[in-house]
Amino acid sequence: MSTFTIFLVLIVVVAFLLIVVIMVQNPKGGGLSSSFGGGGTQQLGGVKKTTDFLDKSTWTLATLLLVLILVSNIAIDRGSAGVESKAYDADAPSTQPLPAVPTTTDTTTATPEDSVAE
């Protein structure tokens, strides 16, 4: 298992946890926490520490997700070659010739009067 794969799995797990933490929070309208018993879960703790914990965990998970995404960029295996782009070829000539434009050898010109038969 490569390092990038490990980072990818961690990113997916943290993103899933972040979604769950955001969905559990109690917004003005109630949120999912009200569906599972509402304020009873917060009263069970006795204080409003649940909202503080959810707020801190949201910021922590969001920061962790951002850091994992940035660090995973370092773990990408780019190979030993310098430039692997197929659009850029160092051996190719710098300019390419333009395609030939077909020329017409017809010297007769049609006028509007010629096309109208009276």
Automatic annotation (TrEMBL):
Predominant place of localization: membrane
Membrane topology qualifier: Multi-pass membrane protein
InterPro entries: SecG
UniProt GO cellular component terms: plasma membrane
Biological role stated in the UniProt entry: Involved in protein export. Participates in an early event of protein translocation.
Disordered: region residues: 87-118
Short name of one Pfam family: SecG
Keywords: Cell membrane, Membrane, Protein transport, Translocation, Transmembrane, Transmembrane helix, Transport
GO biological process, any: protein transport by the Sec complex
Protein name: Protein-export membrane protein SecG
Compartments (UniProt record): Cell membrane
